[in-house]
Write a structure and sequence with these properties.
By secondary structure, the chain is α/β, with parallel strands linked by helices. The chain is built from twelve helices and ten strands.
Length: 284
């Protein structure tokens, strides 16, 4: 990380030696982790704690978000029938208590990959009946049947990130729509109120304070219970540049506001990510 970054960003260090054991297990099972694919700054810490977020449906995304480090293109293979069981076996060997399952966006699939999510949830339940299961899904193009497919597999937590404020969607999340994302979260609450709903957004892309406040209000109105807020960091030079490094005090302010709105938990800080320490966020 560059010396031009503020101190609260520079203090994060990545110890690559700590990544080896978990990375070896993922390679053995032909699995992907969002921790690696997104070049997450927390990956060494999470791997050293024996936690990881599994990324299903391959590693090629059909959308091209301006912030994301995942490869964009036409996926080269259909969903693997072996993948759900491989995720479950890896989670069992890691002895996880909180399993997070996410995916690339697969718009070319009729259900957007919803069946693969459901199958993976069920396999994890069989392998680790005592573990909590959290999913972080794409928007499935607003397909209610796809959302229901995942909901009926009964994850403990259903996460779908809004990522940023509506004004910035065209270049931060091309192909996505803020009302559609809000609709996904609202649908989950309607279909099964026992499943905790969760969302996240990034700061530092040019959003205004009033816009962030408005997003939090929309999330709460949709029944969202848990929110994560973190600093956007440019994963490579081809992606969107950081407009602002938001000071920790501002993250504290948003956390306080979210608590006033009535969120069950709001985790807000420069290095917070939607899956970062998900077990700790859930406990709170």
């Amino acid at each position: 990380m560059s010396a031009r970054l503020p101190a609260w960003i520079r203090e994060k260090r990545i110890n690559l030696a700590e990544l080896h054991e978990i990375k070896s297990l993922l390679r053995e099972k032909s699995l992907h982790s969002v921790c690696e694919s997104l070049a997450c700054p927390n990956r060494a810490e999470c791997f050293s704690r024996g936690t990881a977020t599994f990324m299903i449906l391959g590693d090629v995304c059909t959308r091209s978000c301006g912030f994301c480090n995942v490869t964009t293109g036409r996926p080269y293979a259909p969903p693997s029938s072996e993948e759900p069981r491989a995720v479950a076996e890896a989670a069992r060997r890691m002895n996880l208590r909180h399993v997070v399952i996410t995916s690339v966006t697969r718009d070319e699939l009729p259900d957007g990959g919803a069946r693969q999510f459901a199958d993976t949830i069920r396999e994890v339940r069989r392998s680790l009946p005592g573990a909590a299961v959290e999913v972080l899904t794409p928007d499935f193009r607003g397909n209610a049947a796809s959302v229901r497919t995942v909901v009926e597999a009964r994850p403990d937590y259903f996460n779908h990130n809004v990522e940023t404020v509506p004004r910035l969607y065209d270049f931060v999340r091309p192909g996505s729509r803020f009302p559609r994302s809000i609709g996904v979260l609202r649908s989950v609450r309607t279909m099964d109120p026992s499943i905790a709903t969760k969302s996240g957004l990034m700061l530092g892309l040019g959003e205004r304070r009033d816009e962030v406040i408005d997003v939090l209000r929309h999330l709460r109105d949709a029944g969202c219970e848990i929110v994560t807020i973190g600093q956007y960091l440019q994963p490579n030079r081809e992606k969107l540049e950081v407009v602002e490094y938001v000071e920790p005090a501002v993250f504290d302010e948003y956390r306080s506001f979210g608590e006033e709105l009535g969120f069950r938990a709001i985790f807000s800080g420069p290095f917070v990510r939607s899956s970062y320490m998900a077990d700790v966020v859930a406990a709170r």
